[in-house]
Amino acid sequence: MTGATPQSALHSAGPVADTLLGVTGLLSAGAALILLGVMALLVVAVRRREGTLNVRLWLLGGGVVFPVVVLTALFAYSEWHRPPWQPVPPKNALIVGVTGHMWWWEVRYRDPATGAEVVTANEIRIPVGRPVYFGLGSADVIHSFWIPALGGKMDMLPGRVQHLRLQADRPGVWRGQCAEYCGEQHARMALHVVAQAPAEFDAWLAAQARPAVPAEALSPALARGREAFLANRCNACHTVRGVSETSRLGPDLTHVGSRLYLGAGTVPNDADGRAAWVAHTQALKPGARMPSSHARLDDATLRSIADWLGHLE
């Protein structure tokens, strides 16, 4: 599953997005009708002789009565179709915590088997047909969480937790984007939502809760990558559970090999993409907090690190 649908609110994939699309369609159709009406009245006004129009009547009708009727009808329609909001998550909801960083996304789940927290990055997996209740925050500046195909956006504010409820009606991959300018790499702060069948999601979450592949299970080539990762202090910023768990500065890489993209949607997570990301981070995403490594590490070492990361599925 690698192809994401277009990042568009016109490709709705859930009840909230369906509602927003319906309201948008109604507003667009209404605006078109009003424009046609205004143009027709303009033609009539041009053809009528001067002094034959009741100016006061037209001002009262077109400037007061018509806007009041239209805006009241739109307000009633939008309230009728407004998605139900609950101050607390429904009982069957999946609760997901998302924190915005400059420029990546931290994602947290609760392991139902142990109650332990499961941390991933830049990719959100959800079960189809089950409401998802997001707790949204920021670690630095104002970000905004927006998955157009699934619903509306919500700002992410430092020191405050916002909430948003979304749901996917079918399996698929949808691209999201930070919708609030947050700095140099705002345009490359994307994320992907992967909707899976409930059983498939449960299996994925159980796998994410486990630590990384133990060292004794690695081939000699992959073991060299693991040792290079530690020797070059990549673990100063990144946690890999079961290998090094002392830092929270960068994305958790415990199961990075199972993600679709690296660098918050910057490059595909394949062998070439991983190698390019480790070696030329600043060329691919200028301003990212992770330095490029090509100037201080040889190609063999860089490739071994990239291969080991890809093995962490």
Automatic annotation (TrEMBL):
<keyword id="KW-0812">Transmembrane</keyword>
<keyword id="KW-0479">Metal-binding</keyword>
<dbReference type="GO" id="GO:0004129">
    <property type="term" value="F:cytochrome-c oxidase activity"/>
</dbReference>
<dbReference type="InterPro" id="IPR009056">
    <property type="entry name" value="Cyt_c-like_dom"/>
</dbReference>
<keyword id="KW-0813">Transport</keyword>
<dbReference type="InterPro" id="IPR045187">
    <property type="entry name" value="CcO_II"/>
</dbReference>
<dbReference type="Pfam" id="PF00116">
    <property type="entry name" value="COX2"/>
</dbReference>
<dbReference type="GO" id="GO:0042597">
    <property type="term" value="C:periplasmic space"/>
</dbReference>
<comment type="similarity">
    <text>Belongs to the cytochrome c oxidase subunit 2 family.</text>
</comment>
<keyword id="KW-0249">Electron transport</keyword>
<feature type="transmembrane region" description="Helical">
    <location>
        <begin position="57"/>
        <end position="77"/>
    </location>
</feature>
<dbReference type="InterPro" id="IPR034236">
    <property type="entry name" value="CuRO_CcO_Caa3_II"/>
</dbReference>
<keyword id="KW-0408">Iron</keyword>
<dbReference type="InterPro" id="IPR002429">
    <property type="entry name" value="CcO_II-like_C"/>
</dbReference>
<keyword id="KW-0349">Heme</keyword>
<dbReference type="InterPro" id="IPR008972">
    <property type="entry name" value="Cupredoxin"/>
</dbReference>
<dbReference type="Pfam" id="PF00034">
    <property type="entry name" value="Cytochrom_C"/>
</dbReference>
<feature type="domain" description="Cytochrome c">
    <location>
        <begin position="220"/>
        <end position="313"/>
    </location>
</feature>
<feature type="domain" description="Cytochrome oxidase subunit II copper A binding">
    <location>
        <begin position="91"/>
        <end position="207"/>
    </location>
</feature>
<dbReference type="GO" id="GO:0042773">
    <property type="term" value="P:ATP synthesis coupled electron transport"/>
</dbReference>
<keyword id="KW-0186">Copper</keyword>
<keyword id="KW-1133">Transmembrane helix</keyword>
<dbReference type="GO" id="GO:0005507">
    <property type="term" value="F:copper ion binding"/>
</dbReference>
<dbReference type="GO" id="GO:0016020">
    <property type="term" value="C:membrane"/>
</dbReference>
<dbReference type="GO" id="GO:0020037">
    <property type="term" value="F:heme binding"/>
</dbReference>
<keyword id="KW-0472">Membrane</keyword>
<feature type="transmembrane region" description="Helical">
    <location>
        <begin position="20"/>
        <end position="45"/>
    </location>
</feature>
<protein>
    <submittedName>
        <fullName>C-type cytochrome</fullName>
    </submittedName>
</protein>
<dbReference type="InterPro" id="IPR036909">
    <property type="entry name" value="Cyt_c-like_dom_sf"/>
</dbReference>
<dbReference type="InterPro" id="IPR001505">
    <property type="entry name" value="Copper_CuA"/>
</dbReference>
